Amino acid sequence: MKTDRIDFNDENSNTSTNPSFDAVLQVRLARRSVLRGGVGAVGAAMLGGVGLSACGGSGTGVTTTTTAVLLGFAAVSKSLADTVTVPAGYTASVIYALGDPLTAGTTAYKNDGSDTDFENRAGDHHDGMEWFGLDADGKASRSAVDRGLLAVNHEATTDEKLSSHFLHTNGGTSTLPRPASEVDKETAIHGVSVVEVRKTGSKWATVQGSAFNFRLTALSDIEIAGPARGNALMVTKYATAGTTTRGTINNCGTGKTPWGSFVTGEENWAGYFTRSATDDTARADKSVTSLKRYGRSQGAASRHGWETGGTEDKYARWDISKTGTSADGSDDYRNELNTMGYIVEMDPYNKTRSAKKRTALGRYAHESGAFSLPVAGKPLAVYMGDDSRNEYIYKFVSAANWDAADANSTDVMATGDKYLDSGKLYVAKFNSDGSGQWLELSFSNPTVAGYTGYAFADQADVSVNSRLAADAVGATKMDRPEWCSVNPANGEVYFALTNNSNRRVNPTGSSQLAPDSANPRAYTDMKGTSKQEGNPNGHIIRVKEGSAGAAATTFTWDLYALGAQSDADGSKVNLSNLTADQDFSSPDGLVFSPATGIMWIQTDDGAYTDVTNCMMLAALPGKVGDGAKKTLSYTRTDGSTLAVDTYVGKAPTDETLKRFLVGPKACEITGLCETPDGKAVFINIQHPGETTAMADIADPSKYTSQWPSSAGYGAGKRPRSATIVITKNDGGKIGT
Ligand code: FEO
Ligand code: CA
Ligand code: CA
Asked: Does 360 fall in a domain?
């Protein structure tokens, strides 16, 4: 096992002094039963025939009635086997792995570290993924079920000491400078791929050489859109007009817009850039505050050392130190970090269209972008999380009202301009009485404009520095917001809060927080003989918007379920009474199926991995308010009591939550999309064997996973991130 691994998913740059919500007050307001008790008729119909969108995930407003949904499979047991396990009656097949060729002339992947030409191959660390149907004529189709495109995020790469060791013959160069040939491979395996898939008989496969296939990489030219386009904050040597940048990196969660485009979230992008140890003095302006808030203090080293690949500009741009003499940054990359950290929109059907960074949705460690159920004549909301310890939950509300005709947009990027470039950005505050507020992040908000922690210049500055604006308004610090998804049955929004090692009953320092109502647990979980403190297992919070729907500025909330091992204390830890067939840790991917109403929960865990590999569960959740208030009582070291009121959803039953899949060793399960009929579900197995040491690169017997080679897929024994397709042997809907 390696000991020098840095968890790039576990940053904490939020040392702002705003309280982690109202932990200080913990006011005991009478519970607003009027807000929490109302049962929507739609939500109650979950098991009895539900109006669901039948359009493959985008909620065009076309609804059909499905038959009753039940979880019609036998739960899969926890497992440490180096394989993908699915229920009896199901088949999981690998279809698209790291390095697979996309273009006709690209050679088969040898998987021995000698492969090159990654601009024409599948990238690494497959993450979020969406389905875009194609009809027999190769036209975009909302109903196609046997031919389509998968748009796949390639978040990162398995690495140790700078190098992505599985990509290089002898594990690569783990000291600086990095050779250009290694850097060029590593920048190319980041970004997004679009690949055509087809079903022949019952078999799915990718189509090498399809004219639709393409890649975006860490160096692709991408437009800046929204309030920050052309702003002084975006001026770089590469783009002196501040209207473009190069590349999208650390693409994590995804989304599908109601008008049929793809959105991808840029997550832990800051770590790819380096800053000199004296850069604060060189800058001597407010950009230093921004850089610190986004995790780049001066002297920060880059994750891979790409800036050392050579003198060419494509390497130089990874060093964001102020080195030039210009007043505006047009002669260096001091502003480069401002061009990363967005929701990026793409037209998956047209590789000639430039992707756009939608800056109106804010800049942070983006996960997925989940759209509200579209209502004609009303604004659209996009729900989003910022995945770092103690960060926030956001929502964007479009200025434009939804026009149902846009569901059939023939120019999706122009339609994206309409809905995603102007609107209001909000951040969430969760109150101890089960209510909440969306606080607006606007330059016209005096609390933002007058913030003493950072002098905002304009709305572009608020968009680019949305974390600082959220600090100003006193948003609730959360336990690492990961993916979110909207329940197609009732519009409620679910957010995975994966874990937080910084929750403490007796917090110390600026980064530790006491438990609060929305993040109510701080406990010790044992992993073998090691103690894991904080909220090691995570939880899932859900939000019901107020009467204004997507545009509401108030909401109610509760906790759908809390991760725990099934034998943990039911009064303090296993608050959802999870059984051995349901217990999970560190929820991350979260996707509702419009075809079945099932909510799929995927884990990226390090806490329960002494017992089981990461997994995927199927859930049929109820609704906000279906459970009960619970007060957790903690004793501080000074003997005083900390009482935390929270709201725990109705405990899942054997029929409403079951483990569906367990992955191979040292992977996470992520990304989910399906054919519109719900009969093929595509998911990603990310970084199997990531704990393999670089020193063991020559000895496959020491790899901590050999998947998917062990499943009979592809050459070589090096483990590879890959897309699998899950089908039911009787041809039915997945999970039912
Ligand atoms: Fe890329 Fe926070 O998961
Ligand atoms: Ca444990
Ligand atoms: Ca993730």
From this structure: yes
Segments forming the whole domain that contains residue 683 = 44-102+126-155+190-269+340-728
Note the pLDDT of residue 51. Answer: 30
Q: Which tokens sit at 617?
A: 């569960």
Query: From the alpha carbon of 498, which atom of ligand 1 is closest?
Result: 2
Handedness of CA 181, 183, 188, 189 (dihedral sign): positive
Question: Is there a domain that residue 236 lies in?
Answer: yes
- Has residue 378 been placed in a domain? yes
Residue 82 Cβ contacting ligand 1 at under 6 Å: no
Around ion ligand 2, residues with a beta carbon closer than 5 Å are: 525, 527
Tell me how far the alpha carbon of residue 411 lies from the centroid of ligand 3, in angstroms. Answer: 30
Residue 184: inside a domain, yes or no? no
Pairing of strands 587-592, 599-603: antiparallel
Which H, E and C letters describe 576-624, residue by residue? CCCCCCCCECCEEEEEECCCCCCEEEEECCCCCCCCCCCEEEEECCCCC
Binned at pLDDT 50, 70 and 90, residue 16 comes out as confident
Q: Verify cis geometry, omega within 30 degrees of 0, for the bond prior to 177.
A: yes
Of 736, 716, 715, give the one whose Cα is nearest residue 727. 736
Task: Check if the beta carbon of residue 213 is closer than 8 Å to that of residue 103.
Answer: yes
**Under a CB-based contact definition with an 8 Å cutoff, are residues 298 and 320 in contact?**
no
- Quickly list H helices, 211-324: 279-283, 287-293, 313-316
For the Cβ of 307 lying below 6 angstroms from any atom of ligand 1, the answer is: no
Residue located nearest, by CA, to atom 3 of ligand 1: 252
Ligand 2 centroid vs 501 CA: distance in angstroms? 14
Local structure of residue 513 (DSSP, 8 states): B
Note the pLDDT tens digit of each residue in 379-393: 999 999 999 999 999
- Total domains in the chain come to 1
pTM for the complete prediction? 0.93
| Tens digit of each residue's pLDDT (9 = 90 or more) over 88-116 | 999 999 999 999 999 999 999 999 999 99
Instruction: Say yes or no: CB of residue 645 within 6 Å of ligand 1.
Output: no
Task: Tell me the residue type at 379.
Answer: P
In DSSP notation, 339-391 reads G-S-EEEE-TT-TTSPPEEEGGG--SSEEEEEEPPP-TTSEEEEEEEE-SBT-
Enter the tokens of residue 497: 């809060």
Is the pLDDT score of 2 beyond 90?
no
Query: Which atom of ligand 1 is least distant from the CA of 387?
Result: 2
Q: Which H, E and C letters describe 142-193, residue by residue?
A: CCCCCEEEEEEEECCCCCECCECHHHCCCCCCCCCCCCHHHHHHHHHCCEEE
Measured CA to CA, the distance from residue 688 to residue 637 in angstroms comes to 41
Q: Phi and psi at residue 279, in whole multiples of 5°?
A: -70, -30
Considering only CA atoms, which residue is closest to atom 1 of ligand 1? 252
